[in-house]
């Protein structure tokens, strides 16, 4: 029979030498040169686990040791195991205790009377791979948790059916003014600026991964009652057994206010430009026409006096227009400075 050539370092905690030899033989039957460490008491096992510089890949644990047994033994070994899968070996056939041992954190439960090289090796490899997958999943969840909690933008998760907040990050707590406990006691309706039914007004899109997400603007309010404009981006997820949405909220209040200021300034500048190109043109055209008539020399002295009066009137009209342009330009600069000071108080 072909033996497994991968390296295995295994701890067997067993006070019965006959049972240990049986387990060792079964492992050596299936694995080429496994490294098997044997301890016969909890104290010895704890010392081995604490002092070992290299992690074991699996631990086989007998439930009856001279210095500890049962639930307490399982709990203590799991605490000391450094997340190594613990496979319980026992002669008891108590099904309820088997389930209990799994709930305490044991990876598997094997009866000594039913052991064989195949079942032992199968349990060993299955639980090692399962443990790797669980650790990878935990690391992934931790990374996503860090992205959620450390995001500089407010984020929250809410129940799609009840609209109840399920989780919020620090940025949301700081930005909206509610504590985490206050958030978790509320629904998303509590931060809406209107009494309308909660909805995320926006456009559904498809992300590169193929999942649907929604983006749009929402009018919301903080704990102090301040109304803010928020760019909402949400995606459907499954959170703690519930259909939920994770939401990224970007406060665009200042951006929209700034855009409004710029739009207002542009409108007023267009008015000034229109004045320069249209209002000034009328009196200026009259003046040029009168000057051309005077230059012809075919008009009487009486008409020249009348034309000069019209020229003076047009000149005064242009002067008034120019003064109005200067006044509007100066007022535009004053308004811009005042709005900038109001939006950025020192």
Précis, in short:
The protein is of the alpha/beta class. It has three domains: 9-147, 3-Layer(aba) Sandwich (Rossmann fold), CATH 3.40.50; 152-251, Beta-Lactamase, CATH 3.30.450.20; 255-343, Orthogonal Bundle (Helix Hairpins). The protein is 51% helix and 20% strand.
CATH superfamily of the largest domain: Response regulator
Strand content: 15-25%
Count of all domains? 3
What is the correct CATH architecture of the largest domain? 3-Layer(aba) Sandwich
Q: Point out poorly predicted stretches.
A: 201-213
Helix amount, in percent?
40-55%
CATH topology term of the largest domain: Rossmann fold
Estimated structural class: alpha/beta
Number of strands: 11
How would the global form be characterised? Answer: rod-shaped
What distance lies between the first and last C-alpha atoms, to the nearest angstrom?
A: 81 Å
Number of helices: 10
